[in-house]
């Protein structure tokens, strides 16, 4: 399989990707735990069917010390006992923020309030930015049919 467009070598999409990456780097200053960020990146990518991002974020999370058990259970987090209440709130916000078209009104007040119980305003800003950016990256990769499996840890971070 070959991508329809090489997003990194094309001057326009390459410039866009660099700006997105810079925005993603700013999230690190939000205080959002890195492990939560990786779980969110993986879950949104699973929902969106972005194989490239699932590959990338699974490898990055494992490299950062995330366990295989937790990575395997992200897709079924509601029934898993290995996630904290804060992580569960972040994953729930991720799902509603990713599936906006599936729910009338977008993210519910209850889901937002639950996330706000566990994260301060800076962390919430980082969480919302992470969800928005991964959804954009997922769409870039799905639209151009970016193949998965070749990503190496640290390659695009």
TrEMBL record:
<dbReference type="InterPro" id="IPR029032">
    <property type="entry name" value="AhpD-like"/>
</dbReference>
<dbReference type="Pfam" id="PF02627">
    <property type="entry name" value="CMD"/>
</dbReference>
<feature type="domain" description="Carboxymuconolactone decarboxylase-like">
    <location>
        <begin position="21"/>
        <end position="96"/>
    </location>
</feature>
<protein>
    <submittedName>
        <fullName>Carboxymuconolactone decarboxylase family protein</fullName>
    </submittedName>
</protein>
<dbReference type="InterPro" id="IPR004675">
    <property type="entry name" value="AhpD_core"/>
</dbReference>
<dbReference type="InterPro" id="IPR003779">
    <property type="entry name" value="CMD-like"/>
</dbReference>
């Amino acid at each position: 399989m070959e991508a329809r467009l090489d997003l990194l070598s094309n001057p326009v999409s390459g410039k866009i990707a660099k700006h997105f990456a810079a925005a993603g780097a700013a999230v690190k200053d939000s205080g959002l735990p890195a492990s939560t960020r990786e779980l969110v990146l993986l879950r949104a990518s699973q929902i969106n069917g972005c194989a490239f991002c699932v590959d990338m974020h699974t490898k990055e999370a494992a490299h950062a010390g995330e366990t295989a058990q937790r990575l395997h259970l992200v897709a079924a987090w509601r029934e898993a006992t290995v996630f904290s209440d804060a992580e569960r709130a972040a994953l729930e916000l991720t799902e509603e923020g990713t599936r906006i078209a599936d729910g009338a009104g977008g993210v519910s007040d209850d889901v937002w309030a639950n996330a706000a119980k566990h994260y301060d305003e800076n962390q919430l800003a980082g969480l919302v930015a992470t969800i928005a950016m991964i959804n954009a990256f997922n769409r870039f990769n799905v639209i151009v049919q970016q193949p998965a499996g070749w990503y190496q840890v640290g390659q695009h971070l």
